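Batch manifest, entry 17 of 40.
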Amino acid sequence: MKKKTMLELGRMSPEEFSHAVKIPLTVVLDDVRSELNVGSILRTADAFAVERVVMCGITGKPPSHEIHKTALGAEDSVAWTYCPSALEAVEALKRDGYHVAAVEQVHGSVSLEQVTTPPAARVALVLGNEVKGVAQEVVDACHSCLELPQCGTKHSLNVACTAAIVMWHFFNLLRS
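Output type: C-alpha cells
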C-alpha cells in the first residue's frame, strides 16, 4: 500500500472549512490547564467538523505557541469563544436549546457506547480539568453525564484523548 499524498487527501482550505456544514456539537473546556491539550482538542474538532469550542476559566486560548504546536492551524479553522466560567457557558447553551452533557464519572452517568441517538438536535459536551475533572457545580447544571468505559488501573484518560473519543462518537451520531 502506498501512502496518500496531501493532494490525494483532498482537504478543504481553512476558508472553505469556515463555510462548510458542521455537526451540531459544541465542546466546552472547563479549566483545561494544558495548552497542548487545548491544541489537540481543536485539531480533533477540525477533523470531525465540530461547530465550536468554548474555552472557559483558566483554559488557554489562541494565539498561543503551545496551542499551535498541537493544533497545527486548527485554532484558525475551528470557531472558538472564551467564557469566564464553564457554568456561565453551560447555562447559555441550555438557554439556546442545547442538550448539555458533562463527560465525567458520576453516579448515574451513561456509558458512551449506550448513547445511540443524540438526546437533542444540538449537543454540548463539557470536558474538565486534567486533575479535577468537570467542576461539581458544572456537573449539577448539565442535563446528563457520559462516561467512557474503562478496564485498566487508571481512573481516566487524558482529556484530549477523551475528547477525541467522544467527538468521534457524536460525529457518527450527528452527521447527515
